[in-house]
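Supplementary Note 3. Input sequence used for the single-chain structure prediction.
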Amino acid sequence: MNQTESNHTDVDISAYGTARSTVKGTPLSSDELRKIDAYWHASLYLCMGMLYLKDNPLLREPLKLEHTKPRLLGHWGSDAGQSFTYTHFNRLINKYDLNAIYISGPGHGAPAVLSQAYLEGTYSEIYTDKSEDVVGMQRFFKQFSFPGGIGSHATPETPGSIHEGGELGYSISHAYGTVYDNPDLITLVMVGDGEAETGPLATSWHSNKFLNPVTDGAVLPVLHLNGYKINNPTVLARISHEELEALFVGYGYTPYFVEGSEHDSMHQAMAATVEHCVLEIRKIQDEARKSGNSSRPRWPMIILRSPKGWTAPRQVDGHYLEGFWRAHQIPITDIATNPAHLKLVEEWMRGYKPEELFSEQGQLIPELKELAPKGRRRMSANPVANGGLLRKALDMPNFRDSAVAVKLPGATLAGNVPTLGNFLRDVMRMNMTNFRIVGPDETQSNRLEAIYEVGKKAWLGEYFPEDADGGQLATKGRVMEMLSEHTVEGWLEGYLLTGRHGLINSYEPFIHVIDSMFNQHAKWLEVCNEMPWRAKVSSLNLLITALVWRQDHNGFTHQDPGFLDVVANKSPGVVRIYLPPDANCLLSVADHCLRSTNYVNVIVADKQVHLQYLDMDAAIAHCTKGAGIWDWASNDQGVEPDVVMASCGDLPTMESLAATALLRQHLPDVKVRFVNVVDLFKLVPHTEHPHGMTDREFEALFTPDKPVIFNFHSYAGLIHRLTYRRPGQHHIHVRGYKEKGNIDTPLELAIRNQTDRFSLAIDAIDRMPRFSVTGSGVREALLNEQIACKNHAYEFGIDRPDVTNWKWPYE
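The predicted structure, written as discrete structure tokens, is reproduced below.
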């Protein structure tokens, strides 16, 4: 139904009028009401100053165009509702000595939290040139969305922030991640109603099913219905009260409404509602902790409905501004060409009465300054939001104790990821309050079930008798699974950013679900590395398994190793990619990653049984180098090789070794060097990545001019991209996944993508000049073997026994 067909207005869902609230009461005295309203106005004045001003910060003289920014950038729409909520929560922090942080979900909502950090004094403590005076305020205003300054999100430069909000959808999952194993923390999270339309946000409401009232803190979500996105109404702001309430009751919350626009009544309603929610949280926790009963409660939440751009002019030139989508970004944009509008902005800002809020020196007046919490109780100064300050190193077991015994290379079978599971079990056993493992629904499928010996799966839902038969569920579980990659990734990010440790495990083809989420975290870390006051946090460790080359049962939909391309795009200062070839290398890599800080570590390892190549001492040396010659697989000692066979990845390594064995079997005088790469960024020039090799180091492995047959786990183009600046890069011939696959056997899938032993050996023969003629017969024999193997797979549904049972034939 379009606008011309109906003029119906539902007063119940209007953002205007005297406050309507679930919780009744007027807890604020007239003096408290006056001060809270003034503090809110001070915050809003600072928000407007950030959007418009580069000079004349307190309007001590008439506003002129030269006082304003030539480019007006930033967002106004959610600022009033956010600062309103923040201000009211400060009252409860003071009253009940709460340990709390604030997460700003609405995109570009930084002015609200920046203004609060400045009013609390935290901003000036960190950035001493942004002092609490006229000069500091001028600098504070000018830097916002200005070259050389700060962005319009709650970026890492923002004190108290762990969530930028540049990409919408992650505020709730981040918030819950902060409170797991943080029993005294309340995280106040503001959810924009535009953000609430995203898939990640919709699933993350279920995080309350994993919150243990005995051992965890609490999240207080505030769904901010200001009614509009950039240019459209928001879905949740235009449904009935009954539907909205039913939605959140269905999610497991007790929703409390605060709706309206009239200032005094809204302050009273919000004060009563926030206090009610805080007391309800404390009651839930106290009862659970006294009784030890971890059953899932109905946690409170607030639905705040206020006008978009609240306190702006309702109309400008006959067009709606406050309460409409025009208030989303810069509310009045044409001040450079419209003097009347410049005057309107001045009148609007003066309406907050800055001369009554700030002293002659530019400081917030003492009676308002007293409203802010003190020291670490300030949400902008809480060390939880600078988690590296609280981080304690993991108590680590000796990973060597989990080693696979390898007497001869390529002769022993073991599960790579299952071996890692034994190590992670011991890590968890020694760190039961600050280490968690998360995943969509795949920890057992990924063969990490040894972890369940010490830490079950967190579950506060209902229990059935059959759950005792291998369900591995527990109210105090340490493994957290929900079939939403976004949500579990958000939990882990929030957990890490507040000083703890963890790992996510996921199927390779569907790790792409969090491509952009990983991007945001990597960008966050990159900026944090430039901020000396930001203490380093534990690295985000991603274990990617159920790999492309062993997806014969799922087929083409489950074959995509391209997440590595996404990771390789990020800053070399924060990303690392490891493809260990066997279990002992995987243990060495995992130990290193769990100890590291401020990285995103991507570990690619298959969960199936594989040949093992290196004993633990050799594995440690190999992983320390990141890439190296496997002397036992080479026969070029003391002479120039005819070819370099190289590999990166567990299954590609086996096929490369098998190809090497075929060459040595059929061409007895061939000289082959075998190189394996564990650390993918070793291939990059040392000037481009901290792990990169010099050209001399690179040529010492791969030679300056011999053909290199490089078998790679992922798409071949990534290796060419990483090595394109090497002097001999045109000698590197890469085989990788080519988007060819279905319900194939492992060898048949490799053959379809030309990463199999026969294709690799044939490629080597074709590129060795001295065998271009004499090797023709061998080439033909290998082609015949390849065809025979394919036919066997088509007839019997499995690979030939000589393929599945292949072992390295040389001692």
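The radius of gyration is 31 Å. Residues 710 and 734 are 5 Å apart (CA to CA).
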